[in-house]
Amino acid sequence: MPDPSDTARERGSSPPPVHGLCEPRFSGVREAFEANFRERGEVGAAVCVIVDGRVVVDLVGGFADAARTREWRPDTLVDLYSVGKSLVALLALRSVARGAIALDDPVAAAWPEFAAGGKSTATLRHALCHRAGVPAIRERLADLDLFDWDRMTAALAATEAWWEPGTRHAYHTNTYGHLVGEIVRRTTGAMPGGVLREVASGCDADLWCGLPDAEAQRCAEVIWDPPPGRDRIDPWPLSGDARMIALGYFNPPGYSSVGLANDPRWRRAQVPSTNTHGTATGIARLYAALLEPGRLLPASLLAEATRTQSEGFCPVLGEEVAFGLGFVPTTARRPLGPNPRSFGHYGTGGALGFADPDAGVAFGYAMNHVIPRWQSTRNRSLVEALYRC
Q: Environment class of residue 120 by beta-carbon count within 10 Å: exposed (0-12), middle (13-18) or buried (19+)?
């Protein structure tokens, strides 16, 4: 009788076959997806494409664990990282649509404590496009604080602005979720994870922020694989923008999920910018719903949210960037297909959700081998293959 460990090693020598739906017209997407496993180091992943409301690609492949013993399934959940920023922004925009807050209202109108530290002029628009001045929390925090919503939002509210709100931008890597998420809580009376479930359920989208323990068995193991020198950094000896950037990533130390990504407490917590979990199909279904006029947002508000609101050099990302209101417009540096009105958001490691109103396309991609950067050869190959079809 073979040793089970030998069987596992044999299975781990190559990924299991890719399976799922792929209409013949889109066979190039399947080919690119398979090539990601053969040529680009993919471990486990899923991709979904919806065109004009019809699912044309819905594929899964590879493994849900580092040991390569669990195959990726259609219902496998994984951390989507910053794809969640667009989702929590959507919740805040729905509060705008209801008249609970306006884009140019001060954040403090809904959250009075946020006015402290020179932030009284920060508006919801500033918050949504990374101009609110709080990409990092100044108070030293521990990982246990990360699991306490009130503790995190109180520390953020008390933080002195790093610049006068509205005068510059810097990517709010992790604080974005607590900043925008608390605005959602103050304008709806519910935690952002609960509001997200209500919206996602209405779209039949498997998306979660604050994953219930009962769903944890579906989770893929995140395989964190940073380049040398890109793991944890001690922010406290640094100064100026260098300190701000390091605090944004590592205060609390696990704010970016480092050392926590597979911890049940991390999955259970609500860190909307960083730990939203879901499937590629769930991402695509939500973006497809955004393309239906008036279904999730009024057309005029969606157009405003997806146009460039702030552009220029970002010290956090280290390059020229463009931000919308929670969504990233397509750019030459980070193209979301060839059409100018496409919008979406990347996540660390390459997870991606976007919509292209001109082509009627909604796209979702999720994976578990995380090299900490937004764009990857894997997601780009899939998007390029899609448009060649």
A: middle
C-alpha–C-alpha distance, residues 104 and 192, integer Å: 21
Q: Can you tell me the distance from the alpha carbon of 62 to that of 78, in angstroms, rounded to the nearest whole number?
A: 13
- Kindly report the CATH number assigned to the domain that includes residue 328: 3.40.710.10
Residues (pLDDT < 50) of the chain are 1-12
Given strand 207-208, what is the order of strands in its sheet? Answer: 78-79, 277-278, 207-208
Eight-class DSSP state of 218: G
Task: With respect to residue 16, please indicate whether it lies within any of the assigned structural domains.
Answer: no
Helix, strand, coil content of the chain in percent (nearest 5)? 40, 15, 45
Number of domains composing the chain? 1
**Contact at 8 Å (CB) between 95 and 183?**
yes
Position 357 scores a pLDDT of 98
Give the predicted TM-score (pTM) of the model.
0.95
Q: Which of 286, 280, 292, 281 is nearest to 197 (CA)?
A: 286
Residue 331, Cβ density class (10 Å: 0-12 exposed, 13-18 middle, ≥19 buried)? middle
